[in-house]
Design a protein that fits this description.
Elements (H helix, E strand, L loop, with lengths): L11 H26 L5 E4 L6 H6 L6 E6 L2 H10 L6 E4 L12 E7 L8 H11 E12 L6 H13 L7 H4 L7 H10 L7 E11 L3 H9 L3 H9 L3 H16 L4 E13 L1
Parallel strand pairs: 1-2, 1-4, 2-3, 4-5
Antiparallel strand pairs: 5-7, 6-7
Helix pairs in contact: 1-8, 4-7, 5-10, 8-10
Length: about 270
């Protein structure tokens, strides 16, 4: 992972919330909410909350306090602007140095953020530290890119636009932490002793046209910074190429592609 992979700033937070949240994140946010809703928890820490799609889902739970954190203040600002059905705490924080006392939370949750941790075992150790004995850590990560059809098509299309140095953000980071053996090893190295439960869940990503996911990924993620680092004037060309590739694979009207993720639950 490169430093640019972690930067969600400028117009990215708003575009991320507007396009990517309904495109790929909402189904898995509902899943995490259901899992946590079945547990007896009163205080939840959310790590890598982004623009708050999971936070909003969790806020519908009764008698639960929520602290939602993210490394990028711009993402939290967008999350707070969208709002929740009841007050939650928003706090900028690095997952590898959480500013909370030991044993502070009954559960920790992280949606599609673990892939961005530079030192995953260290981040898992910090999350374990702030959990109470018997507390739960629930997180999800995307499966390999070939199981996520829109992202796969877009990444392949950009290889044709920049053949000598293709942008590899989607393969490298969002879809780069799918190996279950590696996940188990990092959890063990982070101090967790009980075995994790890992479930793989497929869903569908739908949009009114191929242009929507092309624009969402190329403009609303750090893939944009990677494209512009090669040639800032070619962002629209890259988006057009992604649109053509998606239309060729999924049709020229409404598009419907597979998405797939692993959901991991482990007890302290």
């Amino acid at each position: 992972m490169t430093d640019v992979d972690k930067i969600f700033s400028g117009s990215i937070p708003r575009l991320y919330e507007t396009y990517l949240v309904p495109l790929i994140f909402e189904p898995y946010a509902k899943d995490l909410r259901q899992r946590l809703g079945s547990m007896r928890v009163s205080r939840i820490l959310e790590v890598a909350a982004g623009t708050g799609v999971v936070t909003r889902a969790l806020a519908t739970l009764e008698n639960v306090s929520i602290i939602a954190t993210d490394l990028n203040q711009a993402m939290l600002d967008e999350a707070a602007a969208v709002g929740t059905v009841r007050p939650v705490g928003w706090q900028q924080a690095d997952a590898m140095a959480l500013p909370f006392p030991d044993g502070e939370f009954d559960a920790a949750v992280c949606q599609f953020g673990a892939m961005f941790f530079p030192d995953k075992a260290k981040a898992f150790s910090e999350i374990r530290r702030v959990l109470k004995p018997g507390g739960f850590f629930i997180f999800n990560v995307w499966d390999r890119i070939s199981e996520n059809e829109f992202a796969d098509s877009i990444s392949t299309a950009l290889e044709m636009v920049f053949p000598e140095d293709p942008p590899r953000f989607l393969v490298r980071t969002p879809h780069g932490y799918h190996d279950q053996t590696a996940i188990r090893k990092d959890l063990t190295n982070g101090g967790f002793r009980k075995p994790p439960r890992i479930t793989t869940i497929a869903s569908r990503s739908r949009a009114e046209s191929a242009r929507v996911p092309a624009f969402a990924y190329c403009h609303g993620t750090p893939l944009r910074s990677e494209i512009e680092a090669r040639d800032k004037s070619r962002l629209e060309e890259a988006t057009d190429a992604a649109t053509v590739a998606l239309a060729r694979r999924f049709g020229t009207s409404a598009v419907n592609g597979k998405i797939q993720a692993h959901i991991i639950t482990i007890e302290k």
